[in-house]
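Researcher: We plan to redesign the surface later, but first we want a full-length starting point. Tokens attached.
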């Protein structure tokens, strides 16, 4: 299976790095997992069929994507996880107008037409009434159509990356423009569901594609709205369990200033769990680099602590705590109030450590949890998901 066919799924990233947690997650969110497995197998079928195209597929613009709805009549595409390098507006210098099913993007002669996402070219030829046309089949289940090109620069079967130049813009009469559309299973969808045409940006949301006879219905799955006026993870004394046993914390709704990756720029050198039952994740940059508090909090421990060396423990909102160890120097003391992103110590190798690094742990209600439940270490950001927190100490994804 092509790895990139699954890259929109966070949970997959989580598993890649941390095999030991696999089973924990499995039992904790069996239902969510089976849903994801359905989606994954759908996408697998899609991507495995991208390498070869039938003669019919090479000839026609609108054609069903083989296997797309073979296992289920719906699948989700999570655009919240798409990185900047994984998306391009099809004609970045152009100005777009929409008629609801197509964009006409006006520009100047000679401008480059770009592939919107990674994918495989399914069609590249002249089609009467459409000029030179390119159709790219993407690993996320979408197809994009680029028409009226002066010149196509890619061939059927060719792999393209988001942002690659695939054609030179053409047009009709004395106007220079690209006609662009997005299809699911051979049916055009409103491109404005996926992209904002004034800003050229991808809408960071999850869309659900559901087969409805010969059509495909597209729905935007809305985020769990943040409670009005509530600043998530900001107020230490807020008790979300005051009158209920569970609380849904959508990590996507925590404001920028209320979280921070504990060691900016770091790479994981040893994940949580595994054979050695590692109690945290080891993050590495350079010696004496600045370690920051992951959230607002109050320092409950700061000083040498057995094999941890110089150790800091911070209490945060809702029952979360974080622990930072092996510092060459701690810069906070017990009782200090800290803000998310505030420098609390410098990386070192005090205690049982063979190299300068940060050993980082996360606790919920006193129990250790995998830091990767909260942090996406690959992108050094919060996981783009919500967590269901239970008063009794359980943390469940979704
Ligand atoms: Zn460690």
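Model: Full-length starting sequence:
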């Amino acid at each position: 299976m092509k790895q990139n066919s699954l890259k929109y799924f966070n949970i997959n990233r989580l598993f890649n790095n941390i095999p030991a947690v696999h089973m924990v997650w499995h039992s904790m969110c069996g239902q969510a997992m089976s849903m994801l497995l359905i989606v994954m197998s759908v996408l697998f079928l899609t991507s495995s069929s991208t390498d070869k195209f039938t003669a019919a597929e090479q000839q026609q613009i609108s054609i069903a994507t083989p296997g797309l709805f073979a296992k289920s009549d719906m699948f989700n595409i999570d655009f919240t996880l798409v990185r900047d390098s994984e998306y391009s507006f099809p004609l970045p210098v152009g100005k777009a107008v929409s008629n609801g099913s197509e964009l006409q993007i006006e520009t100047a002669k000679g401008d480059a037409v770009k592939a919107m996402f990674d994918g495989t070219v399914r069609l590249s030829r002249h089609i009467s009434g459409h000029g030179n046309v390119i159709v790219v089949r993407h690993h996320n289940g979408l197809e994009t159509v680029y028409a009226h090109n002066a010149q196509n620069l890619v061939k059927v079967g060719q792999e393209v990356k988001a942002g690659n130049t695939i054609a030179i813009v053409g047009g009709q009469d004395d106007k220079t423009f690209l006609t662009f559309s997005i299809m699911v299973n051979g049916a055009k969808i409103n491109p404005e569901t996926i992209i904002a045409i004034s800003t050229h940006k991808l809408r960071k949301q999850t869309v659900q594609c559901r087969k409805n006879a010969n059509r495909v219905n597209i729905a935007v799955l809305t985020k769990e709205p943040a409670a009005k006026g509530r600043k998530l993870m900001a107020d230490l004394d807020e008790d979300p369990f005051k009158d209920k046993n569970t609380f849904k914390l959508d990590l996507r709704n925590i404001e920028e200033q209320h979280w921070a990756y504990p060691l900016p720029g770091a790479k994981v050198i040893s994940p949580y769990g595994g054979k050695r039952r590692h109690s945290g994740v080891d993050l590495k940059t350079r010696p004496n680099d600045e370690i920051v508090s992951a959230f607002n909090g109050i320092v409950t421990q700061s000083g040498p602590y057995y094999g941890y060396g110089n150790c800091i423990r911070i209490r945060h909102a809702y029952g979360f705590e974080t622990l930072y160890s092996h510092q060459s120097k701690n810069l906070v003391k017990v009782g200090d109030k800290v803000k998310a992103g505030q420098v609390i110590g410098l990386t070192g190798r005090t205690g049982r450590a063979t190299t300068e690094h940060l050993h980082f742990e996360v606790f919920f209600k006193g129990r250790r949890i995998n830091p990767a439940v909260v942090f996406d270490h690959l992108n050094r950001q919060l996981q783009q998901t919500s967590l269901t927190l239970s008063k009794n100490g359980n943390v469940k994804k979704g």
